[in-house]
Amino acid sequence: MEGIIIALFVCLVLALVSKYRTIPAIPFYIIAGVVLGQAGLGIVASDQLSSFFSDMGLIFLLFFVGLGLKIDKISDNRSAVLTSGMIDLNVNMIIGFVAAYLLGFSLVQSLIVAAAFYISSTAMAITSLIENRRLMMRESETIIWLMVFEDLVMIIALAMLSAGNQNLLLFAAKIIFVLAILYVLARHGKEFLVSILDRDDELPVLFTFVAVISTAGGAELLGIPDTLAVIALGAAFATTDPDAFEQHARPFKDVFLVIFFVFFGITMNLSGSVGLGVIAIICLLAIASKLISGVLTGIALYGSAKSGLEIWANTIARGEFSIALAVLYGSPPVAATIAVMVIVTSLVGSFVAKYYGSLSRGFGGKRRHHHAPPPHRVRAGH
Question: 56 with 50: CB under 8 angstroms?
Fold first, then answer.
């Protein structure tokens, strides 16, 4: 209990500093965990309580991913979504996988590194657009759709990685069964859900919390990944009143996710990690690969490399999903590599996004602003 109190107090201070300086807090949470944990001062250790809270952070994060999935909106914009998404996927997955494999990681480890290498931080991307007042830029909608596409890829990756040595037909059948139940409940229980959400007492918050936890627990009993189940729950609830569910679930997500990041750092074992040279190469390539995919996307959609630079500036940062992959499937060397990559790309991405206007003027004259209607729905992150 003392460890959680110390960790939360440190994170509160870091959160205040990061918000005041408008820099991302996630890398500093991880650094704080490393300093406090076994790789640093050793004054805080992980226990069952902190592990439970960390698991809750991951579960509620993925629940928010589900709430953000709008299949009908994706279908309406499928051409732009597929074009930008496939460029982003192919460039970054291929570069990440080849680099990791050539640098000595095994085939499976390289796939995990590549997945973490590919997925940008939705929270940081959307936050940078809001804080830097770029939501009205024409590229902002492309950036948001890129994040949605990456979320869909992450769901598929979680399903593939979670299958393991199970009977694939039985595994798929159980997932389809759970999805069908959630779909029926959302479709035919819509009035019931809305009636709960309209209340002004503790019931909406309690219902949301219990629904997420119960879904995760039921998935474990059935032998399917709780990560996929809570994403499906979020997608089902998104057909009712996603804004209300966000409002009631956000306090749990925000607090538990801080614990998730800091205790990820606390449990890191750097003694068996790969060399600093390998990690440095991965970090540099992570920045460069998003530059390549961003420029190619800008040319494909807007006929402009400068539009691609705008996309790159807001998608450099890796974050919550990369760390989630490291926690769920990464060995100690993989987790250490991903952690440093998240820290470096988050800090570089924050700086580039914040000062991109000055940088672009310095390298090519004043950038012309192209205004576009804001996308259908914007949130400060999943």
Answer: no
Averaged pLDDT for residues 343-350: 92
- Calpha distance 372→25 (Å, rounded): 30
The residue with greater pLDDT, 372 or 99, is: 99
Chain centroid, CA 158 distance in Å: 13
The pLDDT tens digits of the residues spanning 144-158 come to 888 888 988 888 887
Return the structure tokens found at 132: 């830097």
Torsion angles phi and psi, residue 371, rounded to 5: -90, 145
C-alpha gyration radius of the chain: 20
Residue 128 contacts by C-beta under 8 Å, 6 or more apart in sequence? 134, 313, 314, 317, 349, 350, 353, 354
Q: What is the mean pLDDT of residues 368-380?
A: 44
Highest mean pLDDT among 26-35, 94-103, 373-382: 94-103
In the block, tokens 């997608």 appear at: 235
Contact of 266 with 37, CB cutoff 8 Å: yes
Length of the chain: 382
pLDDT at 165: 65
> What single-letter amino acid sits at 136?
M
